[in-house]
């Protein structure tokens, strides 16, 4: 995803068409009704500016670490019930610490964060978009967010069974969306908008779901350190296994940082795998289409050749008869 900022005007941000579509979709609905439009704009603008120029930006982190620049980008949706710790997870990943209760509100992480992650020796930028909890009841907004991302982290709270029940419902919405709606193609999702029949979803019997597009799904149980746990690790794992979309299961703790650093690299690897599979299927589909066209052309030539032979034979017989 490319964007530019003006050195003369640091608040000048050029949004990609993908981002414009997503923002328009959000602002068309209850952001306008709640009067939070300006807050959203400010938060996302701060996030984009910091992502490009700030001290914690991917560019400066790379320079400080003397590492290679990112070779690609992934866009990931972070979704779940209110209070499960979505923002805390992203703050822990991108800021390296857990927000304290008395800490001033930081709008930078309200709508997600950008983080450079190393995968197999290469740097990639992961753009995590957090879906506000109040939008979970708007299927159109959730579907829009799914369609501009390549993966989703569905978060639940291990101390709250209701949050896992909501996660089940979100899985069904994700499954239906990737099965029926084409993705919005863009720099962060170059394989989007391709033909159906490229699904990576698995049914209960392990069969591929027809018509689904490639989409990585993670079920993440947060607050694994909590003594008041009400959902066992094995129960969360069983839920992920039962889903009709291939799902990776993890438990993390935004508070202690346990397993947090593994989350983005795992997601990135899964997306790269899906992109490779999707590219292979695309090439196979193109090859089959070429073979189909060649077969049609060959059949047409055969018919034309047969007509020529028959017509020559017919006229030859007429000439003999006339003699």
From TrEMBL:
Ribosomal protein among keywords: no
Region span, Disordered: 49-68, 181-205
Record keywords, A-Z: Coiled coil, GTP-binding, Nucleotide-binding
Gene3D superfamilies named in the record: P-loop containing nucleotide triphosphate hydrolases
Pfam family, one: Ras
GO MF term set: GTP binding; GTPase activity
Coiled-coil region: 274-301
Gene Ontology CC entries for this record: membrane
GO biological process: signal transduction
Protein name stated in the entry: Uncharacterized protein
Source taxonomy: Eukaryota, Fungi, Dikarya, Ascomycota, Pezizomycotina
